[in-house]
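Explain this fold:

***
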Amino acid sequence: MNVASPCNVLMLYPLFTAESFWSFGESCKLMGVKRPTAPLGLITVAAMLPEDWTVRLIDCNTTSLGDDDLAWADVVFTGGMLPQQADTLRLIDQCRAAGKPVVVGGPDPTSSPHVYEKADFRVLGEAESVIDEFIAAWEGGARSGVFTAPKFQADVTTTPVPRFDLLRFEDYLYLGVQYSRGCPFTCEFCDIIELYGRVPRTKTAEQMFVELERLYQMGYRGHLDFVDDNFIGNKKSLRLFLPQLAEWQRAHGYPFELSTEASVNLADDPELLDLMGAANFFGIFVGIESPDPATLVAMRKKQNTRRNIAESIHKIYAAGMLVTAGFIVGFDNEKVSMAEAMIDFIEEAAIPVAMVGLLYALPNTQLTRRLAKEGRLHADHDLASTTGGDQCTGGINFDPVRPLRDILTDYRTVLERLYSPAAYASRVDKLMTLLDRSKQRHELAEGDIRSRVGAMETVHRVVTAIPDGRPLWQTFMNCAKRDTSSARIAVQMIAAYAHLGPFSRKVIDAIDARLAALDDETLIPVAATIDATVARHLA
């Protein structure tokens, strides 16, 4: 009979293989941090382990893994998302070479378990439902195994407070918490409903306030992101929680400025908008994907077709919350040369930070299953690049209906037009005329990492580093003259451009390389691929 003994657990958060839209490297440098956000999943799992187990966390994006760390560990936990796949596999090899058993889990191992066969243990699905089985097996002497959680059954009201003590707060621009899991919608390209289901499950208000109080007592102040798949997925629970959240914030002096992800139908609910404003939400990520209703219907995102989306975005601005949004190029139903429609929409809606990517068929989605059935899915569709690249540069991992040249040319046009300094500055300027910050707290909490660098200094550093960056300075001056509270938000948008401007240029260069490779195949002159007018003619 094996007697359970304390265990040293080394948790490794893998590198993101490539610089991506979301890495915000230059913007982080401006603020004196290393990464935008911290590994919430691993520190949540850490809190589920036995109390007599000792846990260390190394975020490989901020800290180097040393030989002494591996020597200390009895077992290594790792895993993450698709962009971390290559480094996860490297870490598995490194740990096994050092004789350390490896446990892998997270979204990508759950979606593509076959990719991670080298790991000693695979813990698949939501940890709450299966981690106890792993612990029992480990303490019983097992040194390999696969543990699969039943789908969508994890009781998040039992999820413990994450081990925030494992983090170095100063490494990150913001931290995250989770209130709900799952999304009620059925978007074809999305893996959320496959991983977490269509019935959003929420923590209790009491749970959330224990988490918030823990962060508050630990001295954290500043940007806090609710990492929910769709924050408004369970409106009934949210209507009860938000007034309590607003009161907690008021009683504590508004230590946190909040953001989250929500579907655009948030704009249909003035009560929720007011409640979120009162709780000090300042930013919402919205998946818009396409301005074309036929494309939205085909991708099963019908919730975006029942409204004027630009007007919906403006309603969110009127409630004091800026919108960052996701867009995708490469759907089967796109109209010929859709670039102009997407550009016009983003300009009309005044969305400065528009994450535009190429369609990528994620493992374990309705889209992937359909493409496989149609014989269009590439054989290596679930293998991430080991040499860099994300959905911006490596998308379209299937045979598209539209000519690939047309898709890439449209995509290039969108990026080039949206992320010129003048166009970006113009959207920021327009956003600031629409954003009503009267319901939100204007001042940053004392200790907020964003107050380290002054507004003038931040804007000056961005403008001097960006060719033709003068329009950004003019926008800042315009905003400062109109409304000093909005000017702070404008500074955040300008700081984001320190990353987005150069990154969009790198993506354009990568797309040019893909177009040049097509030229070599078809003997079409390169010039034809980079002239937007010719591209529209070809389409």
In short: The chain has 22 helices and 15 strands.
